[in-house]
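in:
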C-alpha cells in the first residue's frame, strides 16, 4: 500500500477487510492454508499481521516457526492440536473453540487436526508480514491409523 498524505497521525482512515476478500497470497506450510487479512500489503500495517489458518480433517501441517515474530492464536472452530518439543520431549496442546495459544519466536511447531471437522484459527503476529520458516520434519509424524 502506497504512503498517503493525512492531515495528522490522528486522522488516518480505518480500513475494512471483508471476510470473503482474505488473500491466500501469503507464506504457506504444507497441510494447512493461511489467509491474510491485515498486513503491510493489505492495509499498510506497520507492526502486525493478522489472518486465519484452516487445517482440513485428518491432516497435520509441516514443522515450521515464525522467525522473530510472536504469534497469538485463537481457535474459532474444531479441535486443533499444537505440537512442539520441550526439553527433548513432544508436547501436545489439545485445544477447542475459544482457546488461545501463544507461540514464542523461533519455536518449531506444527498443527494437527485429527478430527472429522475442519479446524479454523485466527492468527495475530507481531510483524506486518507472515513470517514462516518451513523446516524438515523434526517431530514425529502423528499416528493417524486409528482415525
Amino acid at each position: 500500500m502506497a504512503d498517503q498524505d493525512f492531515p495528522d497521525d490522528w486522522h488516518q482512515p480505518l480500513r475494512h477487510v471483508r471476510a470473503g476478500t482474505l488473500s491466500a497470497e501469503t507464506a504457506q506450510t504444507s497441510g494447512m492454508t493461511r489467509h491474510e487479512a491485515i498486513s503491510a500489503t493489505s492495509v499498510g500495517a506497520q507492526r502486525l499481521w493478522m489472518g486465519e489458518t484452516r487445517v482440513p480433517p485428518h491432516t497435520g501441517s509441516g514443522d515450521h516457526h515464525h522467525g522473530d515474530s510472536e504469534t497469538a492464536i485463537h481457535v474459532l472452530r474444531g479441535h486443533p492440536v499444537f505440537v512442539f518439543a520441550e526439553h527433548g520431549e513432544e508436547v501436545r496442546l489439545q485445544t477447542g473453540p475459544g482457546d488461545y495459544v501463544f507461540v514464542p519466536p523461533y519455536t518449531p511447531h506444527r498443527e494437527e487436526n485429527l478430527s472429522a471437522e475442519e479446524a479454523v484459527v485466527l492468527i495475530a503476529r507481531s510483524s506486518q508480514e507472515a513470517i514462516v520458516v518451513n523446516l524438515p520434519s523434526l517431530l514425529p509424524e502423528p499416528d493417524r491409523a486409528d482415525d
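note: Residues 60 and 142 are 8 Å apart (CA to CA).
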